[in-house]
Design a protein that fits this description.
This protein has 4 helices and no strands. The chain is mostly helical and 85 residues long. The chain folds into 2 domains: 45 residues, Arc Repressor Mutant, subunit A (Orthogonal Bundle), CATH 1.10.10; 35 residues. The longest helix has 30 residues. It holds the Pfam family HTH_Tnp_1.
Length: 85
């Protein structure tokens, strides 16, 4: 059986469709590319260590994480104050 070759543009298009919400199984049915291959393309075309998140999304998540940590610290301090009463 002859192996199909896909150009970079085709790979990028399929990965972008996945990122926009199309499931891998739908992409498999529509384009005839195996699910394993699609997952390999997603991993290969994703920024290293970001799991497909943009730098803006990572920064937003880090900002939210910091806010939640600060809220937790405030609640801990409040608990110690109310526990003394």
């Amino acid at each position: 059986m002859k192996q199909k070759r896909y150009n970079q543009e085709c790979k990028q298009t399929i990965v972008e469709l996945y990122r926009s919400g199309t499931s891998v199984s739908d992409l498999n049915r529509e384009y005839g590319v195996s699910e394993v291959t699609i997952y390999k393309w997603i991993k290969a075309l994703s920024p290293e260590g970001s799991d497909g998140l943009s730098s803006a999304e990572i920064a937003e998540i880090q900002k939210e994480n910091l806010r939640l940590k600060q809220e937790g610290d405030i609640l801990k301090k409040a608990m110690t104050i109310f526990a003394k009463k």
